[in-house]
Structures are given as C-alpha cells and as structure tokens.
Amino acid sequence: MEETKCIASIKHGLRGEVRIPGDKSISHRSVMFSALGSTPVHISNFLHAQDCMSTVACIRALGAKVDFLGEDELIVTGNGLYGLSEPQTILDAGNSGTTLRLMMGILAGQPFLSTFTGDTSLHTRPMKRVIKPLREMGAQIYGREKNTKLPIAIVPIGKKLHGMAYNSPVASAQVKSAILLAGLFADAPTTVIEPHASRDHTEQMLRAFGVPIETNRTAVTVRPMKTLVAPRSIEVPGDISSAAYWLVAGSIIPKSNLILKGVGINPTRTGILDILHAMGARITIQNERTSGGEKAADIHVETSMLKGTEFGSEIMPRLIDEIPILAVAALFAEGDTIITGAGELRFKETDRIQAIADQFNKFASGAIEDTENGLVIHGGKRMQRATCFSYDDHRIAMSLAVLGAAGRGVEIERPDCVNISYPTFYDTLLQVKQK
Ligand code: S3P
Questions:
Q1: CB burial string 416-434: b at 16+ within 10 A, e below
Q2: Cα(172) to centroid of ligand 1, in Å?
Q3: Is position 321 annotated as part of the catalytic site?
Q4: Same-domain check for residues 75 and 186
Q5: Taking burial as the number of CB atoms within 10 A of a residue's CB, which of 112, 113, 263, 414 is the most buried?
Q6: Tell me, what CATH number does 14's domain have?
Q7: Residues 52, 137 within the same domain
Q8: Whether residue 207 sits in one domain with residue 254
C-alpha cells in the first residue's frame, strides 16, 4: 500500500497508443449473466480490477464455476437460471454498488437466504432505491436503518415474485437492472420506466442470452424466463469511463497526441464525447466496429484550447461517472462551466460534488463552486501544486492525477483506490508521458 503518490507536471505531452481496459459495467454483467446460463461462456478483455473481482467472488459463492485462463480472460459456467445455490458465507460486494444492487435483483426471488456486506463506503450508500421496488415485487429484504443500508439480508418467500410496472424516481442503470433481473424470476412481465434513459448494457446482454426485451422510450420490459441461452463468448469492449482520463489529459496537456484503442461507444455512455466536442476538443472516432454486441472504436485525441460549457440532467446518465474528470477539463478551459442536475454524484463512492469542490480548489482557490445539485467551474485560473485526498474514490484519484499532470503537480493521499477500476492507470501515465 502506497500512502501517497506524487505526480509531476507534464511538460512535453502525452503520446502513443493506450489499450483501454475492459468496461466495468459490462464485465460485471458478463459474469453474472453467464452464471445464470448452463453452458460455458468464454469472456475476454474482462476488467481484472477489485470491483469486478467482488462480483466473481459472489458468483463463485453461489455455485457457478469461474476459471481464469489469464489476467483478463475467463470461462464462467452456470447451472441454469434456477441453478444458483445457497451461499455458505456472507456475500461481500466490497466497494461495488453494481455488484450489490444487481446481485440483489438476481437473489430477490431465490428459494434460499443470502446476506450481503461491503466496505465502509458501500455501507453509507443508499439501497432503498433497490430494496423498495424489490419489496413491491414481493421480496423479503431487510437492511440497517429501516431497510435502506448494508448489511442486507434477503429471505426466501416460498413463491414467485410479482411482475410489475415501476416508475423509477432516479435514472439509474443499477436500479433498472436489479428490477429487470428480478423480473426474470417473476410471475408476469416487469417494466421499469426511468426519468431519463440510463446505460442499457443489461438490456443488450440479456438479448444476447436469448431474453426478449421490449423498449419504448425510457420504458423497458422483461418477461419471466425458464432458461437463458448463453452465448459461447463475450468480448468486453474498453471502458469509456477509463478512456475519459486520457480524453481529457490529451486535450489539456500541451503537445499531446494519443490513440485510445478499443473503446466502447455505446450511445448511452458517450455523453463525455458530446461535452468535450462542445468544449472544442480535437477528438475523432476511428475504426468503428462491434465488440461483444456493443459498439467500439479507436479514439484519437490531440491537445486543443477548450472553452467552458453548460449541461444538466438530461445528459447526466450518459456521463455520470465522468463528472470529476470533466471538472478537470473545465478548470483548464476558457470561461465558466455550469453543471446542473448532478445530485446523484452525492451518492457515489464518496460525495463527489463535495470532493471535487474541496480538493480541486486547492489548485486554484475559488475556481470551483459547490451548488446544491452541481458545480460552477471558473476556468483558466493559475494553478499551483497541491496535496490532495482521494477519499478512497478511484475516479477522484485519477482526476487528481490528470489535474496535477496538466498543472504544477500533485501529491495524492491514498492513491491505491485506482485498483477499483483501473489498476494500470499510474503505469500507463508514465508510459505515455514524453520525457
Ligand atoms: C453502473 C451504473 C451507474 C454508474 C456505475 C455503474 C452500472 O450507477 O455510476 O459506476 O454498471 O450499472 P447508477 O446506476 O447508480 O447511476
């Protein structure tokens, strides 16, 4: 464990090719859904990082077979849709909201007891958004603080869940996915309606497992299934949320020229490209293809002069994880950037609005204002070197590293949390940095 990490100012640009590690959302789903099939699924470009390994541990504890062939290549063999078995231990979701919330959906209708724990951060995060609809379907779920927080227990109900139509108050793929997965085990179709469309990896991958999914604007319907028909293989595309650090670093560090290889460009995830383009970034999409049923491409980024912009709730689900790094872009842009409708950031691995305001202002005092549900960022201020805290939040740590590299350097306290989603991040920064 490193206590601090020093990132020096980068003067001569970032250059070369970066192979982007597998998408975190798709990696989780590839293992979970394969465990519900009955034939082996070969998964490649899997994200071998802490969050996805929490999913692997849960899936193993439920009786599915997971064999790693290499760092990012594995075979998962399930025992059928109704073939999970009672875990002998408490399931540990670690830092991963996706593991916990999606697994709750899978386990809500099972004929056995399951219990969940997680790390300190996950214990503070809101689970009512999933527990409430699952209880409405008939599940018996109990948690701390009036059934809203970890630890959580799911008790067997001795009958099927009820299918239902649910109007979700939040645009959240984790909530939507949990309900749809529970719907596979229900007695009638289940529909989730969102205020704005969230990422659709669950829908895409369930289709690849032979599940008919109907969509109508922001409504998604699944029907009860007897079996899933697993594909032979899933190739996970690179994670645009990880590519995001290089998209911004390549834009704001002078003399940069990077090619990001094999990035997933599912339209429900590409809000960052729209915003960076609106800010004047020089980013082009090349070699479009499909990877594991999802759109992927190489992305070329070169240094450019960015200008401030404004965006809000409508685009938010398409870039929710990229706000910290977009705030870095905004600091280096000319003029102000106004972000609204970002209240969900308060419920991530840490309160990211507060973390951004508290830590980023150390580089340029007064540059960032914390508004109720967003941020105002005054770009173009003179930067100074700073010592900052990561809050053990991977996306805050990586954003601080880019901020320091583009500015006058940074010392990051508790930097190892990048292992949650991007274990090779600091090494890659050193590799592409021009001496
Ligand atoms: C995810 C959905 C998003 C995102 C998270 C991964 C997923 O969370 O922030 O990193 O894989 O479904 P919400 O659904 O809570 O917005």
A1: bbbbbbbbbbbebbeebbe
A2: 6
A3: yes
A4: yes
A5: 263
A6: 3.65.10.10
A7: yes
A8: no
7 to 32, 141, 400, 410: CA distances (angstroms): 37, 45, 9, 5
What is the DSSP annotation of 210-230? T--EEEETTEEEE---S----
Nearest to 384 by CA among 371, 396, 367: 367
Q: Does 359 fall in a domain?
A: yes
Ligand 1 binding pocket, CB closer than 6 Å: 25, 98, 172-174, 177, 198-199, 320-321, 344
Domain boundary among 223, 248, 283: 223
Q: Are strands 257-264 and 282-291 parallel, antiparallel or unpaired?
A: unpaired
Q: Using CA atoms, how far apart are residues 233 and 409, in angstroms rounded to an integer?
A: 43
Q: Which ligand 1 atom is nearest residue 177's CA?
A: 12
Predicted TM-score (pTM) of this structure: 0.98
Within-domain flag for 201: yes
CA 120 to chain centre: 18
Overall number of domains in the chain: 2
Compute the distance between CA of residue 56 and CA of residue 432 in angstroms, rounded to an integer.
Answer: 31
Q: pLDDT per position in the chain (435 positions), as tens?
A: 678 999 999 999 999 999 999 999 999 999 999 999 999 999 999 999 999 999 999 999 999 999 999 999 999 999 999 999 999 999 999 999 999 999 999 999 999 999 999 999 999 999 999 999 999 999 999 999 999 999 999 999 999 999 999 999 999 999 999 999 999 999 999 999 999 999 999 999 999 999 999 999 999 999 999 999 999 999 999 999 999 999 999 999 999 999 999 999 999 999 999 999 999 999 999 999 987 789 999 999 999 999 999 999 999 999 999 999 999 999 999 999 999 999 999 999 999 999 999 999 999 999 999 998 999 999 999 999 999 999 999 999 999 999 999 999 999 999 999 999 999 999 999 999 988
Quote the domain boundaries for residue 350. 4-21+239-432
Tell me how far apart the alpha carbons of residues 368 and 383 are, in angstroms, rounded to a whole number.
13
User: Distance of alpha carbon 245 from its chain centroid, rounded?
Assistant: 14
Q: Are residues 50 and 17 in the same domain?
A: no
From 198, 266, 345, give the residue whose CB has the most ligand 1 atoms within 8 Å, as the site to mutate: 198
Domain identity same for 194 and 275 = no
Q: How far is the CA of 290 from the centre of ligand 1 (A)?
A: 22
Q: What are phi and psi of 258, to 5 degrees?
A: -125, 145
Task: State the catalytic residue, choosing from 239, 321, 393, 416.
Answer: 321
Q: Which atom of ligand 1 is nearest to the CA of 171?
A: 16
116 CB-near residues (< 8 Å, 6+ apart): 90, 91, 92, 93, 100, 103, 104, 150, 151, 152, 153, 154
